[in-house]
Design goal:
Elements: E1 2-7, E2 10-15, E3 19-23, E4 32-35, E5 38-43, E6 46-49, E7 58-68, E8 72-78, E9 83-89, E10 92-102, E11 121-122, E12 125-126, H1 157-165, H2 171-175, H3 179-185, H4 198-206, H5 210-219, E13 220-221, E14 224-225
Length: 226
């Protein structure tokens, strides 16, 4: 019996006792995880296809360990421009072993949404819902004279946009921000980001020490010190 299931944003064909390497999961080593987005189940000649997922089906697995994949070298060069840049990347992975494939009866994990407050009726008309302005923190507007934060190793367009929305638009502002605070700001951006070196990189950029920054970035692995 095997199943095609979506795990950590990827689709895998899995069977019982099979080891699979998926994108880094938040679960601790030794913990059990359940993947309920099963797209296909096959038991001998009996094949069930979901539309898109099979209701009640799930794949149960156990987290074996967290690791990093093989290094991939990315080299950029522009002819006759004198531009060369070499980066390395190692994907953060999680090794899981498939313990069981459930064809029926599994419960879907649903994310609960907070119910909107109901407005009270007054004189036959719905009263306006009062929303406290203080309860909604406003994002600071990015400065029109911001720096290109993508020059920091590990920061892409989406992260740069998120930082700008949070009021961090210059190298100096990023250098003054704690790495833990940066991780909190970009928590909703998909992927595994290690922000430990970002403030120090930003400080070098703010000081105009581009040669020193370039030399250090060549030694980094996707923004992470080797």
């Amino acid at each position: 019996m095997y199943a095609i299931v979506e795990m950590a944003g990827q689709q895998f064909k899995v069977a019982k006792d099979q080891k699979v390497y998926v994108h880094r999961l938040q679960a601790e080593e030794g913990k059990k995880v359940t993947f309920d987005n099963v797209l296909l189940l096959a038991d001998g000649s009996n094949v069930t296809v979901g539309a898109p997922a099979i209701d009640g089906a799930a794949v149960e697995a156990k987290v074996v360990k967290h690791l990093r994949g093989d290094k991939v070298i990315v080299f950029h060069k522009k002819r006759r421009k004198g531009y060369k840049k070499k980066n390395g990347h190692r994907q953060s992975l999680t090794e899981v072993v498939i313990e069981s494939i459930i064809s029926k009866g599994a419960k879907k994990t649903e994310t609960k949404k907070a119910a909107a407050p109901k407005a009270k009726k007054a004189d036959g008309k719905a009263a306006p819902v009062e929303v406290s302005v203080a309860s909604k923190p406003k994002a600071k507007k990015a400065s029109s004279k911001g720096d290109d934060l993508k020059k920091i190793e590990g920061i892409g367009p989406k992260i740069a946009e998120t930082l700008n929305a949070a009021g961090i638009s210059t190298f100096a502002e990023l250098a003054k921000t704690d790495a833990a605070k940066i991780s909190e700001i970009i928590a909703d951006v998909r992927g595994n980001h290690v922000t430990d070196t970002w403030p120090k990189q930003a400080q070098l950029a703010a000081d105009g020490k581009w040669d020193e920054l370039q030399k250090w970035q060549d030694e980094l692995d996707g923004g992470v010190a080797k």
